[in-house]
# Entry
Amino acid sequence: MKKSKYNYIFYDDNYSYWFQGLKKTFFRIERNLGKKLEEVICDPYKISEMKILLPKLYENLKTKGFLIDNSMDEFELIKKKRQESIQSKDYFLIILPTLNCNFKCWYCIQDHIPSVMSESTIQKIKNHIDYKIKHDKILSLHIEWFGGEPFMFFKEVIVPISEYALTACEKADIPFYNTATTNGFLIKEELLSSLNILNFSRFHITLDGKRDLHNSVKYQDDANSAFDTTLSNINNLLNMKDDLQILLRINYTKHNLDADIIEQINSHVNENVRRRILILFRKVWQEKTDKDIQFNLYELMDGFQDAGYNVQRLNLINNFITCYVEKSHYNAINYDGTIVKCTAHDDLFSKNPPGVLQDNGQIVWRDNFEKDFHVNMNQRCVICKYLPICMGMCPRNYDKKDKTKFYCKMDSLDMSINKMLKNFIDNEYENSITRKSEFNVRF
# Structure
């Protein structure tokens, strides 16, 4: 046996922290014991002794992936798992009913042009669903509504396509997942019954800080508070369906991390449904890296957890692909029937889009776009010990003409990976080591 190259072992004044990158297992032990154990797993002879003298510890380290067979090639295993994720026949389909939006957030990368999906494009999407089920033999269908703001055209676009997809998947006896990324403002009570019938199970909704800051970003001429309205809608959604989940993304800058936001959210969200809200902290992309901000983040994470919410303390790759756009069975259909891979790319507005949806439901790609889109990992990522929890740079930033161009995602983090892992492990030990998360986020 030998130690895994993807063991992350580090120390503070009291503890030794162990996290296994391939299996995502972890534990924490007293610092001096950790030093001795690390010394043991670095020596093949001492590993053999441990097997005889401490068989339970040996088996535990083996089961958790900290010890592996001498013959195991971990990088080959990563490549295999990556290909399994890429080739998975669980189809993830993003649909943009419009590029228009009811708000104009200052950080948004999109041009919100007046637009709406036509009846002919809706029919093409229905044909596309049939094609993927009958020809590609997909094992499940997951539609994610995106935009713009998708709920500007709920009855006109979301309802007819969702109804068709639900029926088609029932006939094919495959699962259908219906989710949405939305600002949440337009999800009024009169929509709840339809959302339930259409099998909506998750909403990804963003807040831009506490009430006054959020309202300044998402301004309403009629004086309605976007903050209050959105959170009331979230509470109604959670009370509508017992297994519905909310991913509540908090876009932060160094100026809007204020603990008052917790009580302001609490005032709208019933305590009995808070466990089905997962709090996600995401830095606005225009912000520079600021290592001093981590302490405010930790305090807010603790505060939300104490109030009964789930909190994402680690944002790690767990399916061995850096982004869902790498999946063979993934596409994004724009309002006009053009096809893109990345919804954060200018392709959404291009006169020469990567692909076009045909009347028969098939996609015709420009040149070799789809083939060329799947790239090999950068060599610096290949040799990095954090590969299985990162999987490298964004595919759209990979320069095929100059493969020497490189950036590391971890350079832009406001906290080091070890500090994130420490915060996560400490929290699991002190608060929720026996509590199972109710979230099943799939892409």
Remarks:
- The longest strand covers residues 200-207.
- The CA atoms of residues 279 and 311 lie 5 Å apart.
- The two ends are 35 Å apart (CA to CA).
- The first helix runs from residue 31 to 41.
